Amino acid sequence: MNFLAHIYLSGDNDLIKIGNFMADGIRGHDYLKFPKEVMKGILLHRAIDTFTDAHPIFRQSKHRLHENYGHYSGVVIDIFYDHFLAKNWANYSDEPLEDFAANFYKSLETHYDITTEKTKGMMPYMTERNWLVSYATVAGIGMILFQMDHRTKNQGNMKTATKELQQYYTEFEEEFTLFFEELRAHCKEKLAIL
To answer: Is the pLDDT of residue 156 over 90?
Structure first.
């Protein structure tokens, strides 16, 4: 799952959302340096990634892209799945996506001092281009994939993946819908014990 899903799956706690959002850049036991709620978010992020990577539905989606994108196929599916979450947002939240995104960006600014350097560097681009809302359109996904390619020095050629998104749109959406219900239940259990 990519940024939108990680933030959404964190529940209503802003610090858990921030920890979950910035967890990719935090290695090993470095999470212990953060406030308790941020630590929960980091640990939840890791639980989401472990669950996702091992799940047969996610693997099925990923397999469809493997020939063209190799080990980047999982990254692409993470972004595709965020697209389906954003596109179908009203099925998962009563809060409009635009408000959810704006509130998260504001929370990042409010808690700027506890964010990582990587997060601080990303924030202006994320808010200016409104990444979380842009996931809702195929064009927005194309922009995100282009930026991902740029960050990886075009090693994955991910910018072309919207072609497969459109070709297998129904299959990907059905897989996301089934998978996400299981992931939501998993996260609810994890949050209860963290």
So the answer is: no
Rounded CA Rg of the chain: 16
Look up residue 111 and give its two tokens.
């808690």
Q: Which of 53-57, 149-153, 185-189 has the lowest mean pLDDT?
A: 149-153
Pull the structure tokens for residue 65: 């892209």
Q: Which tens digits make up the pLDDT trace of 159-174? A: 999 999 999 999 999 9
pLDDT of residue 25: 87
Return d(Cα 75, Cα 90) in angstroms, integer: 25
pLDDT confidence of residue 35 = 96
In contact, 52 and 1? CB cutoff 8 Å: yes
Query: Beta-carbon neighbour count of residue 106 at 10 Å?
Result: 12
> Quick one: which of 147, 161, 138, 142 has its CA closest to 68?
161
Residues 6+ apart with CB under 8 A from 190: 43, 44, 47
Spell out the long-range contacts of 84-89 with Cβ–Cβ below 8 A and sequence spacing 24 or more.
84/172, 84/173, 84/176, 84/177, 84/180, 85/4, 85/5, 85/8, 85/135, 85/176, 85/180, 86/4, 86/132, 86/133, 86/135, 86/136, 87/135, 87/136, 87/137, 88/177, 89/136
What's the pLDDT score for residue 77? 97
